[in-house]
Amino acid sequence: MPKYITLIRFTEQGAKNIKQSTARARAFAEAVTKAGVKVEAQYWTVGSYDGALVLSADSEHKVLHALTELAVAGNVRSETLQAFDAKEFDAIVGG
Q1: Would you state the pLDDT for residue 95?
Q2: SS (H, E, C) 8-23
Q3: Host domain of residue 63
């Protein structure tokens, strides 16, 4: 199943309401699970990004739809990368 790593930065709105961040994260995970997206991991970070998600779904469309809904809420901006394990990467590069 394809995996995606999403790096998150709080918007001004998200930073202002940071105390609700974990509740928003739980609500996001519940909503996307119903839409066929699994939140495999969710972390809050210190540094250039405020958080990271690891998502998986059977289609890119489902993940992108979930991330669109996350953006619409206005609390975060995200950057998403498709991720590959060693076997998948070997298949891509012909290894």
Answers
A1: 67
A2: EEECHHHHHCHHHHHH
A3: 3-93
Per the structure, the count of domains in the chain is 1
Instruction: Round the average pLDDT of the chain to a whole number and report it.
Output: 96
Q: Tell me the average pLDDT across 56-85.
A: 95
Query: Which value, to the nearest 10 degrees, does the dihedral of the CA atoms of residues 74, 40, 55, 84 take?
Result: 150
86: domain CATH number?
A: 3.30.70.920
Residue 1 has a pLDDT of 86
Q: What sign for the dihedral angle of Cα 66, 70, 72, 77?
A: negative
Give CA–CA dist 69/30, Å, rounded: 13
Neighbours of 47 (CB within 10 A): 5
